[in-house]
Design goal:
102 residues
Length: 102
């Protein structure tokens, strides 16, 4: 609602998009980092605990999370851009009387 009012008061679309991108990128970045770190930790623990003979060679090696991490980061970036564009579009099209009534 605040962004819609700022749009009505003359904030340019580029500045509105930049503020949305910054806000959403911070939230998505924190969520992605926590998710990837949690997945890596669980993978390390599961690899060690599910090995029936942990003392025999070869030692258990966890799988690589590189592809999963990169694809998760890519989806997060795409999501942030799409949601920011949708929010700017919604802020531009919002009616003033609906904003004031809410």
């Amino acid at each position: 609602m605040a962004h819609a009012l700022l749009a009505r008061m003359g904030l340019r679309s580029r500045a509105l998009l930049a503020t949305h991108l910054v806000e959403l990128a911070i939230l998505a970045g924190i969520a992605t980092i926590v998710g990837i770190a949690g997945g890596w930790l669980i993978l390390r623990l599961a690899t060690q605990r599910l090995d029936p003979f942990p003392l025999l060679s070869p030692l258990p090696q966890p799988a690589s999370l590189q592809i999963v991490g990169l694809s998760t980061a890519g989806v997060a970036v795409l999501g942030v851009v799409l949601v920011a564009l949708y929010a700017v579009r919604s802020a531009r099209r919002a009616k003033v009387k609906e904003l004031l009534r809410a």
